């Protein structure tokens, strides 16, 4: 079993890698928006077209054809809000809020000091070393951590033998692991649904653009077609922008859960291994029965 200093250093190393991956995800997600924002700024700073040359008097007074009016540029955020509309804005805003809430909740819950607190493990081990098995069972039953529930379930079945205690620990571990993965599965659901919503917005925008073409007696203006195309592209962009962080954090948190569950199993089996010789109806087993 690893020493306390080795565990702390290993935990800090894994935390550093998690922070690095989080920063990398934010940077990668911001690249498309930054590129579009810079192009919009460049369009704002583009010099105006030179005025048309004056009409030549020798042409019989015919006026020269007017130059195309300069395209009005607008802010990227305003463009995105106008393209999405109130419906898609509400949908993606709600989805983003739920995603951030799930990420924060899982980051706060899936931690070593929450699932496998060192203080509890040291106190529990001191009780076992002092032969105070009833006291060890009491602190395990009153603690709310993952490892405490596993140990309490195992010690509650020691009166029926060590194999029954191991089976109880395994059942408790599977229940706790299922609860953790159940909360995490909603993050994977968002990562799957967000691109589908973006695809739905893409289809809606393209239908709107083709409807402009079909219902117009003459060729429609490019600005009229651009409305539907903007909706199609922005919904796809926002859907992917939500799905990518959701899937990245899902993978990171799932790997962390698997690592912590494995470590909890090793620690709990190491603490309970001293009861391997306890048979059914043993003295130690009778002292660890739940009250």
What's the gist of this structure?
By secondary structure, this protein is mostly helical.
Attribute tags:
disordered C terminus; 9 helices; disordered N terminus; rod-shaped; 291 residues; mainly alpha
Describe the protein in words.
This protein has nine helices and no strands. The radius of gyration is 32 Å and the shape is rod-shaped. It starts with a helix and ends with a helix.
Secondary structure tally: strands: 0
Structural class: mainly alpha
Oligomer: single chain
* Average of the residue pLDDT scores: 75
Outline the fold blueprint.
Layout: H1 4-44, H2 76-109, H3 112-115, H4 118-129, H5 133-142, H6 146-155, H7 162-215, H8 222-272, H9 283-287
